[in-house]
Structures are given as C-alpha cells and as structure tokens.
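Table 4 source record.
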Amino acid sequence: MMTMPKPTSPLRLLHVHAHPDDESSKGAATTAYYRKQGVAVLVATCTGGERGDILNPKMVSADNEARLPELRRAEMAAAAKILDIEQVWLGFIDSGMGPEVEPDTFAAQDVDVAAGRLVKVIRDFRPQVVTTYDENGGYPHPDHIMTHKITMAAVEAAADPSAWPEHGPAWKVTKLYYDITLHRGRYAALDRAMHAAGLDSPYTNWLAGWAETDEDRARITTRIPCAAYFGVRNDALRAHATQIDPDGRWFAVPLEIQQAAHPSEDYQLVRSRVPAAIPENDLFAGVRGGAGEPVGGWVFPG
C-alpha cells in the first residue's frame, strides 16, 4: 500500500518517471527551481530499476550486482533529499531492455489497470501540473513508453468520478507536459560552446548521427530558466552512484559553460485546461493566482 504525502502548498507539481535516477537526469533543475519558490514537488517512480545494469565502472562488483535493488532505493532516497522532494514508488517491476518483456514486468501490464496506482497518487496529491515522457518514452525503453501510456490514462481517469472511486474524489490536472530536456538542440549548443572555449566536446560524434527536424524543434513550447540549479541537478545525479559515472559524459562540460550555452530545461505542453500563450517560461503559467481545481475540459491544444 502506497503511503502518500498530503499537499502542503497551493502549487503542486508531479513528475512521473520510469526508474530511480530519471528524476535527476530529466528535469531536476526545474524541480529545484520550483522548490525554491515553495512549490510542492512529488516524484512518482514507476519501477525500482531492478533489471538495470551498473553503469558506473567504479561501482561494479558481485556484491553490488546482488544488492542492486536495495542500492537503487537508497540512491533514490539520497537524491530526493538533495532535491528536497517527496517521492513515492508505484511498485512495478523493471522490464529491462531485453528483446522480450517478461509477463510480471511493468511494460507487460494492462495500461488501464496499471494506471490505477497513478490515479491514486494524483487524487491524493492533487497536482495542477504533471510531467511525463512523450509517446516514444524520450528514448525507446519499454518502461519509459509504458510510463507515458499510464500517465496519459491516469490523468484522464483521475478527472472521472466514475473511474477508480476507491481512490478518492476526482481531480482534474490543469496542465500536462512532456519532458524533452534531452534534445539535440541542447547538446548542439553545448558542443558549440565547448569548441568556442577551445575544449574537446564529448558530443561531436554523437551529434553527427542525430538528425533533428523542424517538427522536433517546434515541440519545445516551454523553457524553464533554471540554470542556477544545474549544480543541484548534478549533485542529485551523483547520488545515483551505480548509474552515473562522475567522470563520464554527464559531467564533461564545465558547469559555467552549461549555464551560459543552454540555461533552461525544456518541455512540451500537450494538454491545458487554461489558455496557454506559447512560448512559456513557467509550468504554472495560467495557474498562479487560481490554484484550485479547474473547471471544464482541455483548451490546449485547440
């Protein structure tokens, strides 16, 4: 049974992520930016990352391999403390990246049934804003794609009084975003800035094989000016010691270059019950000053 924190702020932000560490690699500076403003932030983590690998070579050992689920929970707790957030586990089993999905894992579940756990989180926490991944999962991990599916289903079901009545009164999320922080434009800006500074870029070869269309660029509707919190993001990433190599690509670009070259984390607004003036620089645009449950259906996109 999930233990849910109760809302403590008029403004509430829910991030839905697939695995422990996703909350730190995607949108963590945004989280710190809003926590500084007093916004309540909750992360719902769908799986425990049980079938992941140890990606930090300094942490590879037989003992750590055997204890990976335990270690990843401890890492998540440490990252949550750094980010000053609440966090809840939805309790699904990591699907891994193998060619076949095991029947007991997250990606194999019925979407509408699995969404019920997130409906409870939404109704208990009552967020005005929810972020998740796009239809491709941000990248095509089965758990990321499933996270997208259950978030879309849960946001709709949470607003329907006839759905999951055992999970409490209906709650209408005001705005729903896809986190697209890890897009080509960001890494191209960092690559240019590294070369301009006379430094080797870790992204040059990577970018050569990464195409981006006008449609991809147009998806960015919202840029959160959170560069001052990139250091907090890095600290949260380092807390996931089995997953993040402190000498790896994540940290190869000096912080000051990151802050100057691409000072935002970026999102796509995909649903809103309040009018939206695009581009935005605030996930709560149209919500501040009227933080209660919205009335009516989605007005964006029109």
